[in-house]
Amino acid sequence: QVQLVESGGGLVQAGASLRLSCAASGRTISSYIMGWFRQAPGKERELVSAITRSGATTYYADSVRGRFTMSRDNAKNTVYLQMNSLKPEDTAVYYCTATTRSFMPRDISQYDYWGQGTQVTVSS
Fold first, then answer.
1. How far from each other are the two terminal CA atoms of the chain, in whole angstroms?
2. Structural contact between residues 34 and 21, judged by C-beta atoms closer than 8 angstroms
3. What distance in Å separates the CA atoms of residue 99 and residue 121, rounded to the nearest whole number?
4. Which of helix, strand or coil describes residue 13?
5. Are 88 and 124 in contact (CB under 8 A)?
6. Are 21 and 35 contacting, i.e. CB atoms less than 8 angstroms apart?
7. Comparing C-alpha atoms, which of 28, 7, 5, 9 is closest to residue 76?
8. I need a surface site. Which of 53, 62, 68, 116 has the fewest CB within 10 A?
9. What does the DSSP assignment read for 36-90?
């Protein structure tokens, strides 16, 4: 059972950058495909990004492609989400997640482990 803890959220102005971190413990993250979901008030949780075990392949939602970059450092047991050119519509709670699936899932039900979330607020 892997434990995930997010950090790096905060309140920023539109156009600013934030770097979210997800520190894992209990098991090495090299065993998992990792992902970031976000959930805004009144909306369902959506997949923002995902990365394969080696980091060779990444997925991005259309709304963040070109602005966000997901990476992983298996030696540090940590994954990251670099968020640039932030927009007010990026405001949400961001969750780190892990899956034991051998493919890259896009559905929330296919992810097995979750962090507590970190709040990102972007003002105009």
1. 40
2. no
3. 27
4. strand
5. yes
6. no
7. 28
8. 62
9. EEEE-TTS--EEEEEE-TTSS-EEE-TTTBTTEEEEEEGGGTEEEEEE-S--GGG
Give CA angle at 64 (35, 124), nearest 5°.
Answer: 120
Q: Which amino acid is at 62?
A: D
Per-residue pLDDT of the chain (124 residues; tens, 9 = 90+): 899 999 999 999 999 999 999 999 999 999 999 999 999 999 999 999 999 999 999 999 999 999 999 999 999 999 999 999 999 999 999 999 999 999 999 999 999 999 999 999 999 9
Query: Which amino acid makes up residue 37?
Result: F
Structure tokens, 103: 């493919």
Token output for 78:
């940590």
